[in-house]
């Protein structure tokens, strides 16, 4: 980082979680109906921000689950460093603040009627709709990988109640010492770009302690990935000889899955025998966004970069992993940061006023790669007439200095990561 020290950036970004977009807030008319689909980082953050800053507006969240299990810190379960309860967050605080929760599936949106249809058969009317449904898995896009295959080779990429990550953990515990753990990693875009590599690191951490003769084979459709140098430094330092990463250009792209033979087949016909496999499949916006006609040919939702209103539907603002916001990553921090601008914009437009101008969107992504060993990447983004742009010299990755200094830095960043997780979950869920 050049303009801001990493430590000060982290403090600034965390402190700003609950205040982004606040200076331009306008009073909403009493009784206006803001409905939010999804209770994850984007949806919960939007609900809390709306209730705090627009107390006269009715805020309703449609979310089938009674609690939210986070993707961030889910990989720590695989290393035995966290439990499911540590990453499970209830909605009690939001409910006590006056947010109405409907625990049902949102099955369809009717933009012309401003209605959301629920699986129960009921409908919910809105004046403004925030859609934060997360990703959908493109079942069948990777031949051989469907819902049944996910019970053999878990994806553990959509948390729901945590079943998939617990299944992967159980399989690791049953892995014979000397076995092979395989990872099938997709091309971009997908949720949490550094996530597969943090997972590789923390599985390696578990294997080093409990299955020291086991190996990891990471098959990647890409030739480069987020924080690559930092991750590979850590792998060489902490897990020498344990991890083999094969990029797409060296036949790392997995093109089919054979659950019966437990084989990952790559682009040039190589068949890799796997004992425990984690398949991270191709992704799109969640089904409801596709069914509502909000997506384009990419499977994700194009949005106005200033307001997050879907370009294909008026009065529907799409945040989080479901939208197209590159170069911003699909991360929990981005969902939290952009949710506030979306809410402030939705209310301003509802009142016939201009949306807040000149918003700034922050991202900080920490990754645990071992015991007391953390790394990070940070960035600052702004909207433009051509889309989203990263502010030059605004971020960067952890320094790669001398080993003695690096050990201290990595330990501090692991602590910063824990503080970040505590702060962002408090900001979203209370």
From TrEMBL:
Gene3D superfamilies: FAD/NAD(P)-binding domain, Flavocytochrome c sulphide dehydrogenase, flavin-binding domain. The keyword Phosphoprotein does not apply. Residues 33-145 form the FAD/NAD(P)-binding domain. Residues 167-281 form the Sulfide dehydrogenase [flavocytochrome c] flavoprotein chain central domain. InterPro entries: FAD/NAD-bd_sf, FAD/NAD-binding_dom, FAD/NAD-linked_Rdtase_dimer_sf, FCSD_central, FlavoCytC_S_DH_flav-bd, FlavoCytC_S_DH_flav-bd_sf, SQRD, TAT_signal. Residues 358-429 form the Flavocytochrome c sulphide dehydrogenase flavin-binding domain. It comes from the Bacteria. Keywords: FAD, Flavoprotein. SUPFAM superfamilies: FAD/NAD(P)-binding domain (SSF51905), FAD/NAD-linked reductases, dimerisation (C-terminal) domain (SSF55424). One of its GO terms (molecular function) is flavin adenine dinucleotide binding. PANTHER family: FAD-DEPENDENT PYRIDINE NUCLEOTIDE-DISULPHIDE OXIDOREDUCTASE (PTHR43755:SF1), PTHR43755. This is FAD-dependent oxidoreductase. It comes from Rhodopseudomonas palustris. The lineage of its organism: Bacteria, Pseudomonadati, Pseudomonadota, Alphaproteobacteria, Hyphomicrobiales.
């Amino acid at each position: 980082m050049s303009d801001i020290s990493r430590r000060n950036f982290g403090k600034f970004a965390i402190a700003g979680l609950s205040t982004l977009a606040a200076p331009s807030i306008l009073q909403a008319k009493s009784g206006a109906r803001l409905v939010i689909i999804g209770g994850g980082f984007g949806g919960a953050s939007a609900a809390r921000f709306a209730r705090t800053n627009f107390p006269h507006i009715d805020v309703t969240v449609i979310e089938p689950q009674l609690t939210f299990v986070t993707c961030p810190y889910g990989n720590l379960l695989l290393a035995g460093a966290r439990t499911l309860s540590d990453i499970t967050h209830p909605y009690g605080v939001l409910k006590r603040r006056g947010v109405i929760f409907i625990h049902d599936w949102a099955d369809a949106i009717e933009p012309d009627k401003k209605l959301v249809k629920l699986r129960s058969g009921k409908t919910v009317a809105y004046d403004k709709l925030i859609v934060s449904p997360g990703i959908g898995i493109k079942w069948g896009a990777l031949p051989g990988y469907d819902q049944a295959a996910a019970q053999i080779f878990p994806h553990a990429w959509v948390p729901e109640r945590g079943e998939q990550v617990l299944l992967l953990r159980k399989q690791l515990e049953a892995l014979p010492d000397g076995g092979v753990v395989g990872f099938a990693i997709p091309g971009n875009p997908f949720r949490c770009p550094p996530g597969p590599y943090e997972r590789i690191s923390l599985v390696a951490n578990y294997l080093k302690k409990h299955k020291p003769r086991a190996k990891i084979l990471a098959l990647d459709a890409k030739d480069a990935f987020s924080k690559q140098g930092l991750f590979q430094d850590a792998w060489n330092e902490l897990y020498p000889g344990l991890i083999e990463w094969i990029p797409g250009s060296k036949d790392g792209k997995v093109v089919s899955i054979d659950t019966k033979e437990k084989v990952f087949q790559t682009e040039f016909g190589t068949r890799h025998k796997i004992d425990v496999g984690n398949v991270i499949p191709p992704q799109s916006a969640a089904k409801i966004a596709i069914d509502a006609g909000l997506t384009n040919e990419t499977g994700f939702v194009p949005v106005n970069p200033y307001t997050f209103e879907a370009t294909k539907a008026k009065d529907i603002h799409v945040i989080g992993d479901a939208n197209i916001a590159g170069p911003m990553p699909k991360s929990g921090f981005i969902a939290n940061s952009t949710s506030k601008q979306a809410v402030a914009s939705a209310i301003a437009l509802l009142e016939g006023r201009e949306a807040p101008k000149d918003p700034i969107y922050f991202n900080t992504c920490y990754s645990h790669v071992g015991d007391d060993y953390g790394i990070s990447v940070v960035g600052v983004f702004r909207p433009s007439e051509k889309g989203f742009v990263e502010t030059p010299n605004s971020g960067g990755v952890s320094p790669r200095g001398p080993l003695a200094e690096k050990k201290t830095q990595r330990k501090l960043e692991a602590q910063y990561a824990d503080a970040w997780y505590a702060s962002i979950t408090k900001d979203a869920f209370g």
